[in-house]
Design a protein that fits this description.
Length: about 400
């Protein structure tokens, strides 16, 4: 059975896989619009959409509507790259120019404007001769945004009763709202991505505001070494809110990767295992760019049934030379196994087979097999097994 499982992994690894951080299959373009709202007109907003030689491609229809909210005192020009990226994946992405009052943020009004923007753009699906005529999925919205934009996305999910249209919400480095959002009321699938060194929206505060009591499904994932400002296409040093240990390009790539995967799942219906890995599985739980990841899987019958993940991360080097450390976290107490297998599925080094308590654990391996000899250079696999869950990583052993 183990040999068959490893062969299946090799086949899956060889199959084409989607890079959600890279541009999608479409070119993109945009239109500038004045969008009427309940409390203000959002002038000179941008709406990005898929393009094929000046025509909305029929293969992208019906396109879901994504609304990307900007940060407090920030312009939409800080987020053009995200809107263009989502358009390349077949979304119509609205960048509404929501006002930024200094004394009273009135986030409840701004949350309403997110909904107004989605609804107005959706109506263009019914306007003859409009580029969006017959091209939109008016019943599939996704709200996202950075800082205030992410916060009002979550507040909209809490308060506006958009169960017939809002299918998911993604908050990026978003602080608590005024009035406050109640995480227990965010019923839609949600993804929270704060920065590990963000001192404008510290990750613990983001967790308390939008995740602490949130029902499944959802994922909370801290981007390691990320600050507040590098989410944006540009920022000034006083806006960065912490000294990042990763580059702006890397922080944006990580953000795009999981934002796109989440929208693909809940707006385009991508139920593949590959997508699941980036929304709830190993590719976010154990990814080296992420820290303090928490996953709440959908309940049985809610559409995304998977076995609960008892391991919240598994860190294993891809290349091994000499002594290495494997680290992992378990949510429950029980038997834990860790072993290295050769390419045929034969166990060659049994590193751990014992009972472990919940928490973080580490195992050091010196590169030897069960008989004490050095493993020959080549391709191997290391497999972690915890109660109800197992995961395998590929290793390359060098001289």
């Amino acid at each position: 059975m183990m040999r068959l499982a490893l062969l299946a992994i090799l086949v899956a690894a060889a199959a084409p896989a989607q890079d959600f951080s890279a541009a999608g299959p479409y070119a993109d373009t945009f239109r500038v619009m004045d969008i009427p709202g309940t409390t203000e007109t959002m002038r000179n907003s941008r709406v990005y959409y898929p393009d094929s030689s000046g025509v909305f491609p029929g293969s992208a229809a019906p396109a879901p509507i994504a609304v990307f909210g900007h940060g407090w005192q920030m312009g939409i020009d800080r987020y053009y790259s995200y809107a263009a990226h989502l358009a390349s994946w077949g979304f119509v992405c609205v960048l509404p120019t929501i006002s930024n009052p200094i004394l009273d943020p009135e986030h409840d009004k701004r949350a309403r404007l997110m909904s107004d923007a989605a609804r107005f753009v959706g109506t263009l699906d019914t306007v003859p001769l409009d580029p969006f005529f017959g091209k939109l999925d008016r019943e599939k919205w996704g709200f996202t945004g950075h800082s205030m934009g992410g916060s009002i996305s979550m507040l909209a999910a809490d308060t506006l009763q958009l169960g017939d249209t809002l299918r998911c919400a993604v908050g990026i480095a978003c602080p608590q709202t005024t009035p406050p959002t109640h995480s227990a009321h965010i019923l839609v699938p949600k993804l929270l991505m704060p920065g590990g060194v963000d001192n404008i929206a510290p990750w613990a505060g983001v967790r308390s505001a939008f995740w602490a009591d949130a029902p499944p499904p959802g994922t909370f994932a801290v981007i390691g070494g990320a600050n507040h400002g590098y989410v944006m296409d540009y920022s000034y040093f006083w806006e960065n809110g912490g000294t990042a240990t990763i580059t702006r390009a890397e922080q944006q790539r990580i953000t795009r990767r999981h934002l796109t995967a989440f929208f693909e799942r809940y707006l385009h219906g991508d139920s593949s295992d590959w997508n699941f890995a980036y929304c709830f599985g190993d590719s976010i739980l154990g990814h080296p760019t992420m820290d303090s990841v928490e996953v709440r899987l959908p309940t049985v019958g809610a559409g995304d049934h998977r076995q609960p993940l008892a391991a919240w991360f598994f860190s294993a080097p891809a290349v091994v030379r000499g002594r290495v450390v494997f680290s992992f976290g378990t949510r429950v107490a029980g038997p834990v196994s860790l072993a290295v297998f050769d390419a045929t599925g034969r166990p060659v080094a049994r590193l751990l087979d014992t009972i472990r308590s919940p928490g973080r654990h580490a195992v050091t391996w010196d590169g030897t097999d069960d008989l004490g000899g050095r493993l020959a250079p080549g391709a191997y696999f290391v497999r972690l097994g915890v109660p109800g869950f197992g995961t395998t990583r590929r290793l390359v052993v060098l001289d």
